[in-house]
Amino acid sequence: MEESYELNSRGVEIFTKSWLLANSVIKALVFFCHGYGDTCTFFFEGIARRIASSGYGVFAMDYPGFGLSEGLHGYIPSFDGLVNDVIEQFSKVKENPHYKSLPSFLFGQSMGGAVALKMNLKQPEAWDGAILVAPMCKIADDVIPPWLVVQLLIGLAKLLPKEKLVPRKDLAEMAFKDKKKKEQTSYNVICYKDKPRLRTAVELLQTTQEVERRLEEISLPLLILHGEADKVTDPSISGALYEKAKSSDKKLLLYEDACHSLLEGESNEMIFRVLGDIISWLDERCSIKNSNS
């Protein structure tokens, strides 16, 4: 496991992390895109180690303004800009001579699912597939404020973009089913837990609207995993993504009674089941890639 801080082309210091099985040939690269307010450490550590122990190189970063990366905490002035920062960072890893010949997969969780889909729209040929866990293709209606409030917030965002004025429900309460795991969220001190900043909220809303409009343009192999009881991101839109994406290789797995945080907030049994499904899919894709090369 390696951690580093790197200056990107905009002069922003980015925290990165990687997990690789020592003295072992890796099958492929997996690039993790974390969710809103989250980080590539804490809960993701165990997930990354499990995937790495199955023979994959796992790479991750904290977005500017999140986790240990530089920037105003929880502030997304431009979602497109954030996606470009992720593309730049992950492209550096892919260009490493040791990794150039390996398949590369995106792994997006919640808002990270929207990041991964936008990356595919910007780079249609760059990735060998994407794993999307409860992807933020549409924010659930229960989470979005009423229409009039949304219009007011959009107007205010032009004047006070960094202010934390967006009303929100307790997302941990909605996302985590296992009470002990929900209690652990309080120990994640670098997670952003305040009300969303105005500009951030507008960027998230506009991004989900754009992604929902452009589902037919998604072209890479997909594994979509969603809890049927998710109250944060809408599982029906994962169904629409599965139906509309032009990908010839796509799979949708819905988990009965599971909530939003499939890999952090469920029972250990459910978490191991979801991780097993992810690793099996990766193994299958790598086998197909090897047989075709």
From TrEMBL:
Protein name, per record: Serine aminopeptidase S33 domain-containing protein
Species the sequence originates in: Apostasia shenzhenica
Domain Serine aminopeptidase S33: 26-265
InterPro entries: AB_hydrolase_1, AB_hydrolase_fold, Hydrolase_4, MAG_DAG_Lipase
